[in-house]
Design a protein that fits this description.
Elements lengths: L1 E2 L12 E6 L2 E6 L4 H7 L23 E6 L2 E2 L4 E2 L10 E3 L5 H14 L17 H9 L17 E2 L4 E3 L9 H10 L4 E4 L6 E4 L11 H6 L5 E3 L12 E6 L8 E7 L2 E7 L12 H5 L14 E4 L2 E4 L2 H17 L3 E4 L6 H14 L14 H11 L10 H6 L2 E5 L3 H4 L1 H14 L2 E6 L4 H7 E4 L2 E4 L2 E4 L5 H6 L3 H7 L5 E5 L8 H12 L2 E5 L5 H6 L6 E2 L3 E2 L3 H11 L14 H9 L5 E4 L10 H10 L2 E6 L11 E4 L8 E4 L5 E4 L11 H11 L9 H11 L24 E7 L13 H4 L7 E3 L1 H6 L7 E5 L4 E4 L1 E3 L6 E5 L1 E2 L2 E2 H5 L6 E7 L12 E3 L7
Parallel strand pairs: 2-7, 18-28, 19-20, 19-24, 20-23, 24-25, 28-29, 29-30, 33-38, 34-37
Antiparallel strand pairs: 1-3, 2-3, 4-5, 4-6, 4-7, 8-9, 9-12, 10-11, 13-14, 14-15, 16-17, 16-30, 21-22, 26-27, 31-32, 33-41, 34-38, 35-36, 35-41, 36-42, 39-40
Helix pairs in contact: 7-21, 8-21, 8-22, 12-13, 19-20
Length: 840
């Protein structure tokens, strides 16, 4: 924007117009809304329905201004949120026009006719735009004295969103967000005229992963959170910026807290990442940090039982046990994928210096050697400066998702893909077995004129993704050859032999940019700081003697002090511990149920001579731990994450003075007990040292080059298993959140009608999916997908795939129709397991 009083003689840049607002001449781009131009000039026009990330609606009429075109005033005030700028336009806002001011006051008066004016009890009181604008732009007295309209309240439009209809000003922000941004048009305007109201359709609950955003953008107190309603007021709270710890999207959030407890979370404003949105998991799943079973004191096992101990005693016991194990069979380190960059760095340094081992791997999930070579050759060292970003997704002409379910695994990536498809017509393709809800919402965009298909599904049998990628349809292959096209790959690719190699070959063939998107918040940072068996901090290869020597100088170690042999991966560490080849394990928040073989993990924990667990709450690891060291949740420490882009996402402590210690401080003190200095006493110290070390500047490691594996071939009564985790599932960080759990998707098995017919699946019957290790019985849902394929959620309700079946994505399983049900089958999630393999 350029304010130019004498600009009449200046030529206009191409694509711009000149207009006057409140007597000030301004140059603005064609197509810009009047309300945006005024905002950039510092002129605030009151509004309710307007939102910069939603399409214009003109629903509330609060933003009326006086407009003159060609020397002729328009007959009545116009809505500035729907009118675009034009050359020679003269606009007068409420600041300079009595007509606009009177019109705005009249609209406010009408909005308040039926509004209950219950500010003292309304959750929005103190931060309500209606409250603020009524005082600034409304009349002091109302001319209406009739009885106000009333409704029964609140109406639960979902288990976590409650509606007070009489507060609603019908701005349609909530309905537009749900339809345009999230693609979940469950909430709509009902009735007409004076009876018009917000509601949901019959038998169609507001089951959206993004429903909490409607609460935040509602300009009045009509939509409230079931978890926060009547719990606090804005002036009672302290607001602290933060970063979401649930996935690799890297969302900016705001923690509102009082008396040492977080009361609610809101989305932060970061145009480069999450804009103004967050998913419901990031918004509502934070009470795990204050759960009643949280571990607050160190524990030591004595006579087979864990007992509370002092920090001094526990650290000495842990140091003695680990030192003895290190000098015997060695120690394996499993930090998990939820760590901050600083904590992950402390684990990497602790393993190399205190334990003298490269047996460290953060990948508490299915993994492979091919994936490791992909990470160390293609992912490490990428950042917004040299890799794919959110803006690249938004501007891409085509995006191909491979082994990646964006709505479930990275919700903000899903929103960007949907935005690109809706606003720019970007073609989004998915290599997947079936059209899941997330696939449908990024490939079929529902506009007012009807649905528009912008992408599509490349159907494939689970395990056959590499072959499908090699034989892409011509339209998909052509789309990927356009400049700016992006290929997104998820962590599920580790379960498909040859897929990472084929992805790189596809990139070389078409020129498409590749981005890897993991599911957990700490995975991207763990790669950079060396929490892998073949990488040291900064992406330095373990096998590179010069890189080891450089790191030894940074760490002040003697030459050749660092172990030179590459370590074992997660499965190798667990197998070695189960076989007695490793004497101890250090575990940092790993759930055995997330691992590809939970039975192997439990055997390793039983057979390991000494187990140290750093965790927040009791888990399956606690049962086998000899020493338990409590650590701080993200709200009680400072630190940073790297999101999938490689973007640094720093946050400071929200709740201070609790006495809880971050992992880096615990490991630093433990190392001191082992006569080693890590210098990671604080996250700031750890990050400063990591920045001094810097990235590896030498030659990179070779990329994987493996042939694509053939798709599995099931026999009679068998099917190929497709599986991935849903956003809302059995995860321990979602515990103590019943309202959030109420919006989780049903736990069902999905298969094609022909597959159902082959096994004789009749009405009212359920399907049994089994292996030699166990069976899962679920209700079914039919969908268009390849025959002899069955999809299960990996860890939802009773469907605990790795725990119960002992296999993963792409495995061949037995399927059969059954009417067998256990007493737990009526749990509302659609099924139950035949084993006792529940989550601890």
């Amino acid at each position: 924007m350029t304010v130019a009083p004498e600009a009449e003689t200046r030529p206009l840049p191409p694509g711009y117009v000149r207009l006057t607002i409140d007597g000030i001449e301004v140059v603005a781009p064609k197509g810009e809304l009047l309300i945006r131009t005024a905002e950039r000039m510092g002129i605030t026009i009151p509004r309710f329905c307007d939102h910069p990330l939603l399409d214009p609606a003109g629903a509330c009429r609060q933003c009326l201004v006086e407009v003159e075109m060609g020397g002729r005033p328009m007959p009545k005030p116009q809505a500035s949120c729907t009118m675009t700028v034009a050359d020679g336009m003269v606009v007068k806002t409420q600041r300079t026009s009595p007509v606009a001011d009177k019109a705005q006051q009249g609209v406010m008066e009408l909005l308040l006719i039926n509004h209950p004016l219950d500010c003292p009890v309304c959750d929005k009181g103190g931060e309500c735009p209606l409250q603020n604008q009524a005082l600034k732009h409304g009349r002091a007295e109302s001319r209406f004295h009739d009885t106000k309209r009333t409704f029964a309240k609140p109406v639960p439009i979902s288990s976590q969103v409650l509606l007070d209809r009489e507060r609603c000003v019908l701005c349609q922000r909530c309905t537009r967000f749900s339809k345009q941004v999230a693609g979940d048009p469950f909430i709509e305007l009902l009735e007409r005229g004076a009876l018009q109201q917000i509601g949901i359709g019959e038998q169609q609950p507001f089951q959206s992963y993004f429903s909490g955003n409607t609460i935040q953008i509602c300009p009045v107190g009509a939509l409230t959170s079931a978890a926060y309603r009547f719990r606090s007021r804005p002036f009672d709270l302290v607001s602290t910026p933060g970063q979401c710890e649930h996935c690799a999207s890297g969302c900016e959030i705001r923690n509102d807290w009082r008396r040492g407890k977080v009361m609610r979370r809101l989305a932060g404003d970061d145009p480069e990442v999450n804009e103004e949105w967050i998913c419901d998991k990031g918004r509502f799943a934070f009470r795990y940090a204050t759960a009643n079973d949280r571990i607050t004191r160190p524990l030591i096992r004595e006579n087979g039982e864990l007992r509370p101990a002092s920090w001094t005693e526990a650290l000495q016991a842990a140091a003695n046990g680990l030192a003895e194990a290190r000098d015997a069979g060695g120690v394996g380190v499993l930090p998990g994928g939820r760590l901050t960059v600083e904590d992950a760095y402390a684990y990497a340094k602790f393993a190399r210096i205190a334990l003298r081992t490269n047996d460290i791997d953060y990948r508490a999930r299915p993994h492979s050697d091919e994936e490791l070579r992909f990470l160390e050759s293609t992912v490490v060292g990428t950042s917004p400066g040299n890799g794919v970003t959110y803006r690249d997704l938004e501007s891409a002409p085509a995006v191909l998702c491979v082994a990646f379910e964006p709505e479930e695994e990275s919700p903000i990536v899903f929103l960007r893909l949907r935005k690109a498809a809706r606003t720019r017509g970007a073609k989004v393709f998915h290599v997947a077995p079936w059209v899941s809800p997330g696939v449908e919402k990024t490939t079929v965009i529902v506009h007012d004129g009807g649905p528009v298909r912008t992408g599509g599904l490349v159907p494939c049998v689970p395990g056959g993704e590499a072959a499908a990628l090699r034989e892409l349809p011509s339209d998909v292959d052509e789309a990927l050859r356009q400049p700016g096209a992006v290929l997104l790959v998820g962590e599920r690719a580790a379960e498909v032999p040859g897929l990472y190699s084929e992805i790189l070959r596809t990139a070389q063939r078409t020129g498409v940019s590749v981005a890897w998107i993991p599911r957990r918040a700490g995975e991207r940072g763990a790669i950079e700081v060396g929490v892998l068996p073949t990488l040291l901090p900064g992406g330095r290869p373990v096998a590179d003697a010069e890189a080891r020597a450089e790191l030894e100088r940074h760490w002040g170690l003697a030459p050749a002090a660092l172990p030179a042999r590459a370590g074992r991966d997660v499965t190798g560490i667990l197998a070695a511990a189960a076989a007695g080849d490793l004497s101890a394990l250090v575990v940092g928040g790993v759930d055995p149920n997330d691992l590809p073989d939970p039975a192997l993990a439990e055997k390793a924990l039983r057979r390991a001579g000494f187990v140290v667990s750093l965790e927040l709450r009791p888990s399956a690891v606690t049962e086998h731990a000899d020493v338990v060291l409590p650590i701080a949740p993200s709200t009680e420490k400072a630190g940073s994450y790297l999101n999938w882009e490689g973007r640094h996402r720093e946050f400071r402590t929200t709740i201070d003075g609790t006495g809880a210690l971050p992992d880096c401080r615990v490991l630093d003190t433990l190392a001191v007990e082992m006569d080693v200095d890590l210098f990671t006493q604080t996250p700031a110290a750890a990050l400063a040292e990591l920045e001094r070390i810097g990235p590896h500047l030498g030659a990179g490691l070779p990329a994987p080059d493996e042939p694509p594996a053939a798709a599995p071939s099931p026999g009679a009564g068998q099917a190929v298993l497709a599986t991935w985790r849903q956003l809302l599932d059995n995860g321990s960080m979602q515990s103590d959140e019943p309202n959030l759990a109420g919006t989780a998707r049903r736990t069902v098995a999905v298969l094609s009608p022909r597959t159902a017919q082959r096994i004789g699946l009749g009405a009212g019957q359920r399907i049994e999916i089994s292996t030699a290790k166990g069976a899962i019985v679920l209700a079914t849902e039919l969908a268009e997908m390849p025959d002899d394929v069955v999809w299960l959620p990996a860890d939802s309700g009773a469907s605990k795939v790795h725990r119960t079946l002992g296999v993963g994505h792409g495995a061949v399983v037995d399927i059969a129709a059954t009417t067998a049900m256990s007493p737990a089958a009526g749990n509302g999630h659609g099924g139950t397991t035949h084993l006792d393999g529940g989550r601890a």
